[in-house]
């Protein structure tokens, strides 16, 4: 049985059904996909479609359960720095080094290539020892000690910021590297240096887009579930994980119906599992601080906007002030802004653009996103920030839709709307194996972490551990 029809839950269901298991999925929302959300709006101008969650597909080789047609994105990201410099990332290491040389300096390119060699070692170590295996305790990391070179590459105890300053003299490259910590919901000043594997994966294997939006991945997984005979029930909330002694025995749905199962897989935030579904004070206390959340604007924009790539990041003059605000539970007045505009006729009317605008934000709680005027006021501020950075679309907006951390909390039952559960300020995420026999956790709040490929790996690792039906 699977609780939650996010990408992790659906992937686990597919893998186990293929292994001969009879699988049932219960999803509290009215549709599948979890944080891989979608929004559509029909206007007199036509239909606008948006991904409201992930907007970039990486490591396409891990999505083996469905037939996808990923389209490469080049540049993967256009970085616009406070001084106006632009740097376009790509999946060819030599070409990217050349772009760094042209946009920044030959010295910056040499620094980046040195860091790249270090990142390759971290990636190789992470892939072999961490990402492709279930990890149940910190003791598992001591396998790395068998190869001192691997342990030195991962550098336990060193932060991503420290690694950045040790390799990169140009503050713009350091600014770019810092951004990858937020991909794991973490502050780069506290995030482990091992997160340098994130930019390596993106820039070594490329960034990809699915026509019609990344939400089509959820559709493909749901279709595969149906083909394999998986029972997927939407609009059915699980209230409790049941136990018989030290073993998970099934679930109780909201309303009181009990459903027995030999194995339970929770594709839910680990905090929700250990606070609500299977109260476990000790595991709950070990989860650490919540990850950052996101504040999103969905904009229908008239006309076409020059200078934007598929993904464009606009950096602030003082990134540390942004981190201080977001991780201190406040609104950032001058944040990093990500703008995603897909050149895909399937997501916007001719002559218009569908904009996804994202800024890092504190979760619901430290900031009361439901308070009158907070969300609208911050939306106005973000549009003003974009205007200050040279992209003013305020007179071309057909409509705007706001998504706050409080909305994500309500829609996905993620506490506070934290995107990644707990912030990745430690090398290990919460374990995939639960405190009961036959209970497993998958998804972005657990090992090996957030993001579509890692969520998919978590599901595959758990399915492999459960094994084929007897």
TrEMBL record:
GO molecular function, one term: oxidoreductase activity
Amine oxidase domain: residues covered: 8-279
Pathway(s): Carotenoid biosynthesis
Keywords: Carotenoid biosynthesis, Oxidoreductase
Pfam family, one: Amino_oxidase
BP term (GO), one: carotenoid biosynthetic process
InterPro entries membership: Amino_oxidase, Carotenoid/retinoid_OxRdtase, FAD/NAD-bd_sf
Assigned protein family: Belongs to the carotenoid/retinoid oxidoreductase family.
NCBIfam families, sorted: crtI_fam
Protein's UniProt name: Phytoene desaturase
Native source species: Rugosimonospora africana
């Amino acid at each position: 049985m699977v609780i939650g029809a996010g990408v992790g839950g659906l992937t686990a269901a597919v893998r186990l059904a293929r292994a001969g298991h009879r699988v049932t999925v219960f999803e509290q929302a009215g549709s599948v996909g979890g944080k891989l959300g979608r929004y559509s709006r029909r206007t007199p101008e036509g239909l606008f479609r948006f991904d409201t969650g992930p907007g970039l597909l990486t490591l396409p080789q891990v999505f083996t359960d469905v037939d996808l047609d990923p389209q490469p994105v080049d540049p993967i990201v256009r970085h616009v720095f406070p001084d106006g410099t632009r740097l376009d990332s790509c999946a060819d290491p030599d070409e990217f080094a050349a772009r760094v040389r042209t946009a920044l300096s030959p010295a910056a390119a040499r620094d980046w290539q040195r860091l790249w060699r270090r990142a390759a070692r971290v990636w190789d170590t992470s892939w072999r020892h961490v990402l492709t295996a279930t990890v149940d305790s910190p003791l598992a990391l001591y396998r790395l000690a068998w190869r001192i070179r691997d342990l030195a590459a991962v550098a336990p105890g060193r932060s991503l910021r420290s690694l950045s300053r040790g390799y990169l003299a140009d503050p713009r490259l350091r600014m770019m590297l810092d951004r990858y910590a937020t991909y794991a919901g973490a502050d780069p000043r506290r995030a482990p240096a091992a997160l340098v594997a994130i930019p390596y994966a993106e820039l070594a294997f490329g960034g990809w887009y699915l026509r019609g939006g990344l939400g089509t991945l959820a559709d493909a997984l749901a279709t595969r579930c149906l083909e394999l005979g998986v029972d997927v029930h939407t609009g059915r909330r699980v209230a409790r994980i049941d136990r018989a002694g030290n073993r998970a025995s099934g679930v109780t749905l909201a309303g009181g119906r009990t459903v027995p199962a030999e194995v339970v897989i929770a594709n839910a935030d680990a905090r929700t599992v250990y606070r609500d579904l299977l109260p476990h004070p000790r595991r709950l206390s070990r989860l650490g601080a919540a990850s950052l959340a996101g504040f999103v604007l969905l904009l229908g924009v008239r006309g076409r906007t020059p200078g934007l790539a598929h993904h464009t990041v606009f950096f602030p003059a003082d990134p540390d002030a942004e981190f201080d605000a977001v991780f201190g539970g406040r609104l950032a007045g001058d944040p990093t802004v990500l703008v995603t505009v897909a050149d895909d006729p399937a997501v916007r009317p001719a002559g218009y653009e569908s904009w996804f605008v994202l800024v890092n934000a504190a979760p619901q709680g430290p900031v009361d996103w439901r308070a009158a005027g907070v969300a609208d006021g911050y939306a106005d501020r973000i549009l003003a920030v974009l205007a200050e950075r040279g992209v003013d679309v305020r007179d071309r907006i057909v409509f705007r839709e706001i998504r706050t951390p409080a909305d994500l909390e309500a829609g996905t039952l993620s506490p506070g709307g934290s995107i990644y559960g707990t912030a990745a300020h430690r090398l290990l995420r919460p374990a995939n194996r639960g405190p009961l026999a036959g209970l497993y956790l998958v998804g972005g709040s657990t090992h090996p972490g957030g993001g579509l490929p890692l969520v998919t790996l978590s599901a595959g690792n758990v399915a492999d551990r459960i094994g084929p039906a007897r």
